[in-house]
């Protein structure tokens, strides 16, 4: 099984709607990272969270880290078609082992 | 600053052949990591090089190898290709040690198809 699980697997929302993507780890997190990927291309760094309770925002995207629950959420406010893509969480779970979640595919309908 | 450059972008190889992929990191970055992305397994860590030394390695067979040169450019080699090696191979560079402790910049990837 995956060390990082993401939910939902895919999401279709109407432009302007808010949405949340979750990332849950089965192991202790030493750092949690969010990336966005356009199909077949490289990853674009969004945010890095390293402390429990940490929350970061960039434009309309906010990410939070709940260390106790070993979970992070990514929230997009007033979604736009430009937000469409695959969102991946990545984490350092110790032992110099870097893992990624399976990704959440987001579609935003105009 | 130029971004991370991976070459070639696309590659088609036959089973049993070998392939070499190249990654040029951002100028000044000393860490280069390689990842394999497939629909079934997702994004998986292959290995990380820092200052010409392999520091971390994922769970891939010995057919997958890499190296890093003094200018930080890195190459990844896959020998005796199998159909299952068809994937998008991504490299990431960062200015510090372990790439996940800092912002890692990814290349566009090399899409390898094994027929």
Explained architecture:
The complex is a heterodimer of chains A (110) and B (115). Chain A has 110 residues and is mainly β. Chain A has no helices and eleven strands. In chain A, 0% of the residues lie in helices and 56% in strands. In chain A, 36% of the residues are buried. Chain B is mainly β and 115 residues long. Chain B is built from no helices and eleven strands. In chain B, the strands form two sheets. In chain B, strands 2, 4, 5, 6, 9, 10 and 11 form a seven-stranded mixed β-sheet that branches. A four-stranded antiparallel β-sheet of chain B has the order 1-3-8-7, with no helix packed on it. Classes of the chains: A mainly beta (110), B mainly beta (115). Chains A and B meet through β5, β9 and β10 of A and β5, β9 and β10 of B.
Q: Helix/strand/pairing class of chain B, anyone? A: mainly beta
Provide the residue-averaged pLDDT of chain A. 89
Principal-axes shape call of chain B: globular
Main β sheet profile of chain B = 7 strands, mixed
**Share of helical residues of chain B:** under 10%
* CA radius of gyration of chain B: 13 Å
What would you call the structural class of chain A?
mainly beta
Q: What order do the SSEs of chain A take from the amino end to the carboxyl end, as H and E?
A: EEEEEEEEEEE
Q: What Rg of chain A, in angstroms, do the CA atoms define? A: 13 Å
Instruction: Flag low-confidence runs of chain B.
Output: none
Number of extended strands of chain B? 11
Count the DSSP helices of chain A.
0
How far the N terminus sits from the C terminus of chain A, by CA atoms, comes to 36 Å
For the largest beta-sheet of chain A, the strand count, sense and barrel status come to: 6 strands, mixed
